[in-house]
Write a structure and sequence with these properties.
Length: 73
């Protein structure tokens, strides 16, 4: 029974600092996001994100010529 109380009070203790996930991974946002370079979102470029220094950072691949031509048809 004592372990149950200790586990309960452990919820309010100090927590470990958030670890940075500095690896970029693909992301499909529902709402528009702000890119790290301040550029506007491109409709066909892939969006990438990472968790760095306590917040999410977003970047987008530039549209290639093949992507542009594929959108035209």
């Amino acid at each position: 029974m004592t372990q149950g109380y200790l586990a309960f009070f452990g919820l309010f203790g100090p927590r470990a600092a958030a670890t940075d996930v500095t690896v970029w991974h693909k992301h499909n946002p529902i709402l528009p996001v702000r890119l790290t370079d301040g550029a506007s979102l491109n409709p066909s470029g892939q969006i990438w994100r990472r968790f760095h220094l306590g917040e999410w950072e977003y970047k987008q691949d530039p549209e290639t010529l093949d992507d542009y031509e594929a959108r035209q048809f």
